[in-house]
Amino acid sequence: MGAMEEEEKRVVSPSTEGLAEERMLGQEMVREMIARRERGDGIKQIARELGIDRKTVKRWLRLGEWQPRRPQRRARKLDPFAEFIERRAPEVGFNGVVLHRELKALGFTGGLMQVQRFVRPYRAQRRWSELATIRFETGPGEQAQVDYGQLWVWIGAQAEKVHLFVFTLGYSRRLYAHAYRHERLSSLLDGHERAFRWFGGVTLTCLYDNPRTLVLGRRENKVLWHPQFEDFARYYGFTPRACQPYRARTKGKVENGVKYVKRNALAGRRFRSWEELNGWLERWSVEVADRRVHGTTHERPIDRFTHEQLTPIATRPPYRYERVQTRRVANDALVTVGAARYSVPVEYVGATVSVHKSLGEYEFFHKERLIARHQKAARHSVVMEPAHYAGLLRAGGSKSVGTPPPRFDPYFGELGEVMVRDLKLYELISQSEGGVSR
């Protein structure tokens, strides 16, 4: 009796229609209906004894089992603006305040909380879509991925910060690594050329994680590349591509490669020089990296490399980028270029020379004759080659003056010029006057 009273309390009275009553019916109540029906009880009797509307009993007996009722969605004030919100919300970063302001201008009369509740599912969908990444594989010769990694390595007697350039072929997973002191454009281009010659060819595209050295910005969804890098890419015939901002996971092959080099090739190592460090990286690439079984492809990179279809560069000379400027040689035989000063031979003082800026160095020409070459130096540096000043005395020594000294300076001597006599003359005068020679 007590159990029946509890069930009756859970059941909404017959005077309350349909939806509320069906929502309160539990699985046990529905099973009771079906069991009573199978026992031979009529619908009226079941409804009367359980305190449930006859239409409700008929419905559940027709279904044959309990099923959760699907909630009916009520119309919302924002429904007429749903299409606008779906298109506009990503453009304003799903900012509810901005959307509410713009919706009010379109005729929406609801509050801010309604807008924020409406965009919450879209914001959550964007969050997981940013986290999720679809792995894709590239075909032979299609793509390479390029990145830098930084770590401290003992070189000689001190720890040096090493900038590790890593170039990974997308299909075979073969990689090339080289250590640099910095990540300037000159080292990045040098790393590319070394990798191209190491592999014997170039892929169709190269993928980058928007390095500031190469990517100057974006305009109308187009990447603005550094003009010198664009010229470099045209020279070797590959297309540079940049990851979408904040989506560096699309470049996972090379990022894993950077970690692999750090943890496998350089962990706990010490080197006598930078040359020894880079020599070891090349040796490690051949003896270890190329021959291990890759965790994703389950093949050795050196074996898959036989199927790579790279564009050969065997006969192509190294890249050379030149920009010519004209400068006048100052009196100290220095020429100012790029906020630094470089020496040329002194015989060209006052002459106009042409400066050819190539990758990492300056060449100075006078009437098509090469007169000096210097590596590019830091701003405000002064680079002087001693051979350029041959024939001149060192600074601080006596200077060779073309004119004789003044002979009649009144402040230097009373007679203008000191007469020079032989000392024997003074001895003869002394004897003639009765002096004694000593």
Write structural notes for this entry:
The protein is an alpha/beta fold and 438 residues long. The chain folds into four domains: 2-63, Arc Repressor Mutant, subunit A (Orthogonal Bundle), CATH 1.10.10; 79-131; 143-312, Nucleotidyltransferase, domain 5 (2-Layer Sandwich), CATH 3.30.420; 323-389, no CATH class. Helix content is 34%, strand content 21%. It contains 14 helices and 17 strands. It has helices spanning 2-10, 18-24, 27-39, 43-50, 54-63, 82-88, 96-105, 112-131, 185-199, 227-236, 252-265, 274-287, 301-304, 423-432; strands at 143-155, 158-169, 175-180, 201-202, 205-208, 215-219, 222-225, 239-242, 270-271, 311-312, 323-328, 334-337, 340-343, 352-358, 361-366, 369-375, 382-383. Strands 1, 2, 3, 5, 8 and 9 form a six-stranded mixed beta sheet that branches. β2 (158-169) and β3 (175-180) form a beta hairpin. α4 (43-50) packs across α5. The longest helix is centred in the first third of the chain and has 20 residues, at 112-131. The model is unreliable at 1-23 and 395-401 (pLDDT under 50).
